[in-house]
Amino acid sequence: MYYLILIWLATVAFMEGFAYVMHRWVMHGPGWVLHKSHHRPRTGQFELNDLYGAIFAIPSIVLIYGGTVAGWGDWATAVGVGIATYGAIYFGFHDVIVHKRVGHTYVPRSTYMKRIVQAHRMHHALESKKHGISFGFLVAPRIDTLKRQLAESEARLRKPAGIRPAGSTDLPA
């Protein structure tokens, strides 16, 4: 049982690195076609970027099925549950706390929570898929490091909400 808990924890930790790689080089690369919707004002409950959640859930579902039904072994279940756990943590932090897609009154007070929220908001401050900062989510660089990266970035800063002329929500490719 302990090795299954270790596999589960290792998978959750691994997923932060996987999420960084996917966010930096896929979502802000060839997958920008879906992800750019996340960097624009949302006009409804959903955005094209939400498809990534469904895409990333597939390996979890397959592994849980394989471990519980197809006889692949308990390791497969532990890995599948680890991926699902990371997905739930990500949804809670990213979609609920940072982007407030579910109404709440939570205010980040701990140093850690303030840091990951501010890091993600700084990620969204740039109008570019190429010159971004802070691609991880549960692990974020120090804010002074991000401020320096933001100042050194070649990308334009987004204008504050309400400044753009009507209909000009497109971001440069």
Number of helices: 6
User: Rough shape?
Assistant: globular
Question: Which percent range describes the beta-strand content?
Answer: under 5%
- Quantity of strands, as a count: 0
Catalogue the unreliable spans.
Answer: 162-173
Order of helices and strands: HHHHHH
Alpha-carbon distance between the termini? 48 Å
Class by helix and strand content? Answer: mainly alpha
The main β sheet shows up as:
none
The overall average pLDDT, rounded, is 88
**Rg on CA atoms, Å:** 18 Å
Q: Helix coverage percent of residues?
A: 55-70%
Provide keyphrases for this structure:
mainly alpha
Set out the fold topology.
Blueprint: H1 2-27, H2 32-35, H3 51-68, H4 74-98, H5 111-123, H6 143-152
Helix pairs in contact: 1-4, 3-4, 5-6
Task: Note down, in words, how this protein is organized.
This protein has 173 residues and is an all-alpha fold. Helices cover 55% and strands 0% of the residues. The chain contains six helices and no strands. Helix 5 (111-123) packs parallel to helix 6. The longest helix has 26 residues, at 2-27. It is globular, with a radius of gyration of 18 Å. The model is unreliable at 162-173 (pLDDT under 50).
